Task: inverse folding
């Protein structure tokens, strides 16, 4: 691609600096005698003027800091070069004399032509031709000089230390064509040489016998100043026949057409940018066409970026460019162009931000991104360019390309803004939804998506009906909310149970599942539920009602832990029983008998095993009437050897690893399925008998089974009716045994719960069956009762209440008389029943029978109070006052006798209290003398005759003083003793007294006790508080 097709940008800015001493006797760089110049830094330059004079100028201060003559008279300076900001090489020529190269230290410039650091006299034989080009290595170890007649002179030595050098001619052009370009490579091992007809490569370290090591171009040469060495790549760049050619030491070459035929200078700006100076021919004017007017010289100066293939600077200079040199100021590289009109052009590169702004303004976004990346720009700034580029593409309706750009700048954009551009509700264009999906995929893959973004992606995929996208999501998006690109994680993800105990909210699963159902994504609904639903019930619901694969639902249930399997069965067992009754019943039996063990679940829901499919077709044809037949059939159909239930028990049944749940929680699932219910209950009953489960749960099973058997005996066909009745009889016997065993075990215990099977009588009555007739071996009433209910007190009361509803009053009275001594509560029920109506009272013999058989035993045994009797009888108008007259009279007489006895007891207490007060008063009377008998009395401690000193206590006990322990000294200094025999009683009295004093201060305790016992005997609390001295205060000290 030629330069004419390259885009142009102004990445550089030029500042023309006119010589401030222009017109002065000593100008800086506008001297017409200027022959060469070189830069030391951004402000200091070396100039050669007046043939042999060297000036050091300061551009910043606009002055000449130093000047000296480099050579004697007659010499002309043809070239000045600065080597590594340390040395300066000045080359002088004189007709008829050899050329000289003087080396100066920049830090120590001389004052005249006789002082220099080192001097080299060029030995080119009888050559009188002038120099054309010179190349000097950075360490001053090698210098190559080219002549106008085609000779090339090589100089090697330790020139920097002035230790001498050697010279030899390495090439002589046979056609005497001038050397136009000559450059040493970075290590000075090779030298690129160009004449006007060819380009060559020489090795500077060995003998070449006057011939080049490699001819790079034998057809075309290079004009003067139209070649340069790229120090970054060690390539020789030159202008050849309208193209830029790049040569390596190996001879490799590549070209760049520039379509500039009049290139005058080439200069390497940096690694990828080259400055080209070409002379432009001005358009001929039709206004002035006189030979007296010459056309002005116009130079076009451009900087091309060969890496990005753009022109980064383009300008015109209306004078000849004398030289181009580099400098650096504070890490900023500067180019100087010295023009023949005395103007120095300072060319600096614009900042990267300014360059990017220029490119963005021209909408060259790909180049802007490339430029930012090449300059290692901050990531966020690069992403801002992507964002601007994305907005530009979006406005151009290139939405797919815009999406790609938005994905590249996720750190600097608002996701909601991009989503709103492709909103699902605002457009029906599927392409927009695809772009939105692509953007959301990027968020997920970079692990920066929020639950709403994941939800939106799935919604878009569903609307696009992209089943492959949904499948891809399932395979690579794990339960931790991370996207794993390199492998299919679905299998291992399903084995990760930690997800079910986490609080991760990955996306709106309920919404996604509902949309999948609406759009008929049946398989995907199941897969999403299986992987992401924490509640297994949802998965089973899909299998049952959406996929309608009951067999798969059962297998999935079998793969779950027992807790989840139980929840599923309590929820869906009714539906499962309707579709696969036997398989479902088998699973229910396993769960509720403790045999359940989790199995591995098959993953292909569309593939149903043949054995299961065969059972589905014949399921409704196989009905079982007992657990034994069901057990044998299921073993046979599953491929295990047919064996009886008894034999399996003998071989050692598996011990449950969990506590089986109560079967009653699934009883409602068996509605309208009595035969499956029978099988289930019999299996549960067998399990309870085998492992000795809770008696109350077992009784529930017996009661339910009894009701079921009786119902089937009435509703089933006649051939099986007797069989059901026989089973009901056995269940009744089993229940009676259970009640008896529990009563025996709980006799005398207040904590254990007793078993009540009275509900069986109600069941019998509802089914029109006499429970006493089920047991033909027992004839008398007691035996029939015990057969049905046992002999518990609750059972007696329940039977009596049942008889009041179903039997005659006479039989009820007989039952009462027989069992009244076992259950006192029968008296209350009997009194209420027999006085409930006149007919009942008359049938049993009237009020006298009630009085003799019920009321008299009640009063005698004190079962009910008189108030309770009156309350019971006041609820009916059947009996008369005469029934309780005698009882009331006896009650009054007994109360009067009790009052009399109480009065006598009070009198005796008052007499005793009076005597004790007199005795206490006499003991506390200090002034009244008391006679003490000492003679022939013994010490109560040592049991020897008393002698003085002795101590007498008012309690009547006397001791030797030596036998007593001194308790303490009082304020008068006397010794204080306490009676050893009365010490315990004294301390107890003091303690009681202290408690009474403390109680008087705790009135809030009384309020708290009264508040807590709001419905109890508050009067008792008050009297007890007063009795403990709560309202007294005693100042006496005992």
Result:
């Amino acid at each position: 691609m030629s330069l004419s097709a390259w885009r142009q940008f102004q990445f550089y800015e030029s500042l023309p600096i006119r010589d401030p001493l222009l017109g002065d006797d000593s100008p800086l760089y506008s001297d017409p005698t200027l022959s060469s110049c070189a830069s030391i830094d951004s402000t200091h330059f070396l100039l050669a003027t007046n043939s042999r004079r060297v000036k050091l100028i300061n551009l910043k201060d606009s002055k000449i800091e130093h000047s000296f003559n480099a050579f004697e008279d007659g010499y002309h300076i043809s070239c000045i070069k600065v080597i590594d900001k340390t040395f300066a090489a000045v080359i002088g020529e004189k007709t008829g004399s050899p050329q000289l190269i003087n080396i100066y230290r920049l830090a120590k410039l001389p004052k005249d032509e006789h002082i220099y650091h080192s001097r080299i006299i060029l030995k080119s034989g009888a050559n009188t031709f002038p120099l054309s080009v010179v190349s000097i290595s950075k360490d001053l170890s090698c210098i190559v000089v080219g002549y106008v007649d085609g000779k090339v002179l090589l100089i090697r030595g330790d020139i920097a230390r002035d230790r001498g050098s050697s010279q030899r001619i390495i090439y002589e052009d046979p056609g005497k064509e001038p050397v136009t370009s000559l450059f040493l490579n970075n290590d000075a091992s090779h030298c690129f040489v160009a004449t006007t007809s060819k380009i060559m490569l020489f090795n500077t370290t060995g003998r070449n016998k006057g011939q080049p090591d490699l001819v790079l171009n034998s057809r075309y040469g290079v004009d003067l100043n139209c070649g340069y060495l790229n120090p970054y790549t060690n390539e020789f760049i030159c202008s050849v026949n309208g193209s830029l050619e790049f040569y390596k030491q190996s001879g490799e070459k590549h070209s760049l057409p520039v379509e500039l035929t009049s290139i005058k200078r080439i200069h390497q700006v940096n690694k990828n940018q080259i400055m080209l100076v070409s002379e432009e021919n001005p358009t001929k004017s039709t206004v002035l066409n006189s030979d007296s007017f010459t056309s002005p010289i116009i130079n076009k100066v451009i900087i091309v970026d060969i890496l990005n293939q753009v022109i980064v600077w383009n300008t015109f200079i209306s004078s000849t460019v004398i030289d181009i040199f580099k400098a650096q100021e504070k890490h900023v590289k500067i180019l100087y162009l010295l023009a023949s009109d005395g103007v120095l052009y300072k060319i600096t590169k614009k900042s990267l931000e300014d360059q990017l702004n220029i490119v963005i303004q021209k909408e060259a976004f790909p180049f802007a991104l490339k430029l930012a990346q090449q300059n290692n720009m901050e990531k966020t700034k690069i992403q801002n360019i992507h964002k601007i580029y994305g907005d530009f593409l979006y406005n151009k309706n290139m939405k797919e390309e815009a999406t790609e750009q938005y994905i590249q700048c996720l750190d600097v954009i608002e996701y909601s803004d991009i989503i709103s551009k492709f909103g699902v509700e605002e457009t029906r264009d599927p392409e927009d939804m695809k772009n939105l999906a692509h953007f959301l995929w990027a968020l997920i893959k970079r692990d920066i998506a929020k639950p709403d973004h994941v939800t939106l992606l799935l919604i878009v995929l569903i609307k696009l009906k992209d089943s492959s996208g949904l499948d891809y999501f399932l395979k690579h998006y794990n339960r931790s909310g991370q996207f794993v690109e390199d492998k299919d994680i679905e299998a291992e993800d399903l084995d990760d149970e930690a997800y079910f105990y986490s609080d991760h909210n990955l996306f709106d699963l309920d919404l996604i599942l509902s949309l999948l159902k609406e759009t008929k994504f049946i398989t995907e609904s199941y897969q999403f539920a299986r992987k992401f639903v924490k509640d297994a019930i949802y998965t089973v619901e899909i299998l049952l009602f959406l996929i309608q694969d009951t067999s798969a639902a059962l297998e999935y249930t079998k793969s779950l832990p027992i807790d989840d399997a139980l929840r599923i069965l309590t929820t869906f067992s009714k539906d499962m029983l309707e579709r696969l009754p036997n398989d479902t019943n088998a699973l229910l039996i396993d769960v509720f008998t403790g045999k359940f063990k989790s199995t591995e679940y098959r993953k292909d829901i569309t593939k149903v095993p043949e054995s299961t499919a065969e059972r589905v077709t014949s399921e409704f044809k196989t009905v079982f009437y007992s657990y034994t037949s069901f057990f044998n059939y299921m073993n046979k159909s599953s491929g295990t050897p047919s064996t009886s239930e008894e034999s399996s028990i003998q071989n050692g049944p598996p011990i449950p690893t969990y506590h089986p749940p109560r079967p009653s929680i699934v009883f409602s699932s068996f509605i309208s399925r009595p035969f499956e219910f029978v099988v289930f209950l019999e299996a549960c009953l067998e399990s309870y008998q085998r492992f000795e489960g809770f008696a109350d749960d077992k009784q529930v099973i017996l009661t339910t089974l009894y009701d079921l058997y009786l119902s089937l005996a009435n509703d089933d066909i006649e051939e099986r009716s007797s069989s059901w009745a026989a089973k009901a009889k056995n269940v009744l016997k089993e229940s009676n045994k259970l009640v008896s065993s529990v009563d025996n075990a709980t006799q005398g215990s207040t904590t254990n719960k007793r078993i009540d099977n009275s509900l069986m009588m109600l069941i019998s009555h509802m089914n029109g069956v006499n429970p006493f007739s089920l047991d033909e071996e027992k004839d008398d009433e007691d035996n029939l009762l015990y057969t049905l209910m046992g002999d518990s007190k609750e059972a007696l009361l329940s039977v009596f209440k049942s008889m009041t509803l179903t039997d005659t009053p006479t039989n009820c009275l007989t039952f009462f008389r027989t069992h009244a001594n076992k259950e006192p509560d029968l008296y209350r029920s009997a009194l209420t029943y027999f006085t409930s109506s006149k007919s009942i009272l008359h049938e049993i013999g009237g009020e006298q029978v009630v009085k003799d058989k019920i009321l008299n035993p009640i009063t005698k045994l004190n079962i009910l109070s008189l108030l309770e009797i009156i309350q019971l009888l006041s609820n009916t108008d059947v009996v008369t006052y005469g029934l309780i007259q005698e009882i009331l009279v006896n009650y009054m007489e007994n109360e009067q006798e009790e009052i009399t006895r109480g009065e006598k007891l009070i009198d005796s207490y008052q007499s005793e209290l009076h005597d004790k007060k007199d005795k206490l008063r006499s003991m506390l009377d200090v002034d009244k003398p008391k006679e003490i008998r000492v003679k022939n009395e013994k010490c109560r401690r040592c049991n020897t005759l008393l002698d003085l000193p002795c101590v007498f206590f008012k309690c009547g006990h006397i001791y030797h003083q030596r036998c007593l322990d001194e308790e303490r000294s009082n304020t008068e200094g006397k010794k204080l003793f306490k009676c050893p025999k009365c010490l315990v009683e004294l301390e107890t009295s003091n303690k009681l007294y202290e408690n009474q004093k403390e109680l008087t201060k705790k009135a809030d305790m009384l309020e708290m006790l009264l508040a807590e016992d709001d419905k109890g005997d508050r009067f008792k609390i008050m009297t007890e508080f007063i009795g403990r001295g709560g309202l007294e205060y005693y100042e006496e000290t005992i």
